[in-house]
Amino acid sequence: QVQLAESGGGAVQAGGSLKLSCSVSGNTQYTCELGWYRQAPGKELESVATMEPDGPGKYADSVKGRFTISHDNWTKLYLQMTAMKVDDTAVYYCAARRCANPDYTYWGQGTQVTVSS
């Protein structure tokens, strides 16, 4: 089992910055990938950024150049968001994928991010 807990959400004006954190605990030995997903009202869940322990982050086109994913010893996952847009408003989730599973199976409770114009 892997436990994930997000923090750092809140309200920000367009053009501003926000940093999300996710505490990762439990049996992370076979966790090959961590990621950030988001779901805006009335929209489907979408991948924002993902990363492997030693690899570069992979980003959705909509956030490339503005968001940066990073981790601290695979126990903390971060998402630095800059130049934020109203369209970034969503509930953001931290997620983990086991090496033997192609899908993300562990999820945090989510944190709300609201960007106002």
Would you give an account of this structure?
With 117 residues, this protein is an all-beta fold. It contains no helices and eleven strands. The chain has strands spanning 2-7, 10-13, 18-26, 31-39, 46-51, 58-59, 67-72, 76-81, 90-98, 106-107, 111-116. The strands form two sheets. Strands 2, 4, 5, 6, 9, 10 and 11 form a seven-stranded mixed β-sheet that branches. The protein has a four-stranded antiparallel β-sheet with strand order 1-3-8-7, with no helix packed on it. Strand 4 and strand 5 form a beta hairpin. The mean pLDDT is 96.
Features:
seven-stranded mixed beta sheet, four-stranded antiparallel beta sheet, single chain
Q: How far is the N terminus from the C terminus?
A: 40 Å
Q: So how many helices? A: 0
**Biggest sheet layout:** 7 strands, mixed
Shape: globular
Radius of gyration: 13 Å
What share of residues is helical?
under 10%
Oligomeric composition of the shown chains: single chain
Low-confidence stretches: none
Structural class: mainly beta
Task: Produce the secondary structure layout.
Elements lengths: L1 E6 L2 E4 L4 E9 L4 E9 L6 E6 L6 E2 L7 E6 L3 E6 L8 E9 L7 E2 L3 E6 L1
Parallel strand pairs: 2-11
Antiparallel strand pairs: 1-3, 3-8, 4-5, 4-9, 5-6, 7-8, 9-10, 9-11
